[in-house]
Amino acid sequence: MTHRIESQRKLxxxxxIAARVFYERGYDGASMQEIAKAVGLTKxxxxxxxxxKDRLLFEIMNYGMDIxxxxxxxxxxxxxxxxxxxxxxxxxxxxLIVRARDMEITVILHENRSLKGKLREKINARKxxxxxxxxxxxVRVQGKARDAVRVPPEVATFALLGMINWLYQWYRxxxxxxxxxxxxxxxxxxxxxxxxxxxxxxxxx
Amino acid sequence: MTHRIESQRKLxxxxxIAARVFYERGYDGASMQEIAKAVGLTKxxxxxxxxxKDRLLFEIMNYGMDIxxxxxxxxxxxxxxxxxxxxxxxxxxxxLIVRARDMEITVILHENRSLKGKLREKINARKxxxxxxxxxxxVRVQGKARDAVRVPPEVATFALLGMINWLYQWYRxxxxxxxxxxxxxxxxxxxxxxxxxxxxxxxxx
Lengths: 205, 205
Description:
The structure is a homodimer.
Chain A: H1 2-25, H2 32-39, H3 43-49, H4 53-76, H5 82-98, H6 103-110, H7 117-144, H8 153-165, H9 167-170, H10 179-204
Helix pairs in contact in A: 1-2, 1-4, 1-6, 4-5, 4-6, 4-7, 5-7, 5-10, 7-8
């Protein structure tokens, strides 16, 4: 068990460093030799942890989805009110995207054309689960509203994902908009767009 | 003049084909030799049109921005009402992103880490102009509203860009949501999020 934890810790360290190398040199441009060097391993040592470059890319993406699971989804699991659950999910997801520490992982997770076949399908399945989770909450929030506006839940789900995932393209925590202000504005904007003022105000009371 | 038009037509054809090659093989993975072959030119013939691989990537992105200018911005130029102008800009931008024909160009325009230095700066300046144009319209729309909700205009601008630009990740015109329904839902959602119900309804009458 201790061995397994140590092995996972090492794999995650490799993922973080390899993500930076892929980010800087491109997936095709970076060699396993370079990645091994950046991690401080021999090439054979790196292959002991991951069997191939494809697999390494998969592990980075899988790690990105693990972070989402651990830092966001596990934390909101016990919340029963769908609006509060959705609100906290949005805050957690924003926090993940704007954290400089995981920026390279975010980029690699979103620009995922290099992954092929079964490994790609596995990552897409995890992404799909998250999309379905968001959609389900949006449906429940819409269902609770007495006078719901009809935005198709798929469209609302992807609009929300676009708003949040696009943040890595422009938002810098050191800029003029604080993360707290960003999260507040996004949540206000999203729920107003979804439900209109009346429902939103009822909810606030 | 005719020569210049012919030369631009050829450059655009090269851009479209090269975008597909970069999309499939990655920027680092694709060689100028391969691109020349795909276009039906010798390598020397390709270099007659574009001086380097960097320059070719720049020309593809620049072409992407030209398409936005010609198909969206030029067409809304004469509209004076900011809400109508913004509405038509959103519709035009959505149309651009979901058109399968230019999908590769969209991807390359958004995943632009491979471009460096001055060429990157030139593309970013064009993107910035578009962002400022959207922001200015949002400010004017907010200013006209009698009871405006306070979403910071920067945040609303990037939320909108995220909603639209993210479409290439998930939306397929052949799927269950028609483009007309998508555009209508996005516009409803965005203006409601920005202004609330009351203003939106006033506007609709």
